[in-house]
Design a protein that fits this description.
The protein is of the alpha/beta class. The protein contains 13 helices and ten strands.
Length: 315
């Protein structure tokens, strides 16, 4: 089945970038968000504003949701599932609860609606260019159907098997990024207090065994002082909460994840729900009465790699 018309629900920081890449690829795109002002740039580029979820579904064979929480997904799908038809395809691209995705996919299956979970990973700057990674789970036939659309959204696309697998893997990767962020703040503060030049420290870590994707990206906006990664405290607390739910489910004595959650919860109280997640380092700066600034680092992250064609990662 070749899908030409897509409905997209959720035009936040990530959703708007995903929707834009779908539009660039030439699909007819209907869009909806509770905040209509978020649609203006996309409408100017050719997207069509749907006045309701009902109208969006009536015009689309594929609907994509990119929403901030499991609660928001449930609220949208409570409206959407009765309106979707047999052979329609729902693609959920948020970071969400694997148990909720399994439950919703079973409700869809009763009506013959195909379901995929396809969270993206790799940072908003890569979401903008389409060089982002995509983790996908669901029926293989649904994956094959969606691959042209997913190839418009991301570069490396990994099929993970049954529903729940991709959501779990995304929660794991977000947890690892959060732990790494805390460790980097402490590492950079040691360098600062010791008297090391922070630019040299950045590049030293970059060429070392301690390097990471988080260091190569988020350390830059920490050293700049903008902290701007487009990802918020409330979202990182939600994601670590989902990770902790999994460790509790399997009775894993995960002490580090509980500590990580408590540190970010403190950061959220100090700086607010909408503060950038990298602001967690400001908590350390405040306690140490020192900052982690260095010249020459960008205010915002930019993907400097050329735009790459979307491909399935074969394993």
């Amino acid at each position: 089945m070749i899908d030409k018309t897509i409905g997209f629900i959720g035009l936040g920081n990530v959703g708007s970038k995903i929707a834009n890449n779908i539009l660039i690829e030439g699909y007819k795109l209907y869009i909806f968000d509770l905040n209509q002002t978020l649609s203006k740039k996309l409408v100017n580029k050719g997207a069509i504003w749907a006045e309701s979820i009902s109208k969006l579904i009536s015009k689309s064979s594929v609907i994509i949701t990119c929403l901030p929480s499991p609660k928001a997904i449930n609220e949208v799908m409570k409206l959407a599932i009765p309106l979707l038809s047999k052979n329609d395809l729902w693609i959920e691209m948020s970071t969400t609860d694997e148990s909720e995705m399994i439950k919703l996919s079973k409700l869809c299956a009763k009506k013959g609606i195909e379901t995929l979970e396809a969270p993206i990973t790799g940072g908003q700057h890569r979401a903008e260019t389409g060089n982002i990674g995509v983790l996908v789970a669901g029926e293989r036939k649904s994956f094959n159907r969606a691959l042209p659309i997913l190839s418009a959204i991301g570069h490396e696309i990994l099929y993970c098997g049954k529903i729940g697998n991709a959501s779990t893997l995304k929660v794991v990767t977000n947890y690892l990024a959060s732990v790494n962020l805390l460790a980097l703040g402490e590492a950079l503060m040691v360098c600062k207090k010791y008297g090391l030049d922070l630019t040299k420290a950045f590049h030293g870590i970059k060429i070392s065994s301690g390097n990471s994707f988080v260091h190569e990206t988020e350390s830059k906006v920490i050293l700049n002082g903008s902290y701007d990664v487009g990802f918020t405290m409330e979202l990182v607390c939600k994601d670590i909460g989902l990770f902790n739910k999994l460790t509790d489910k399997f009775q894993i004595p995960a002490q580090l994840s509980k500590l990580t959650k408590s540190i970010f919860e403190e950061g959220k109280l100090l700086y607010g729900d909408k503060a950038f997640s990298t602001s967690i380092v400001k908590r350390l700066e405040d306690k140490c009465n020192d900052d982690l600034r260095a010249d020459g680092f960008p205010e915002k992250l930019v993907d400097e790699e050329s735009i790459k064609k979307g491909i399935e990662v074969k394993i």
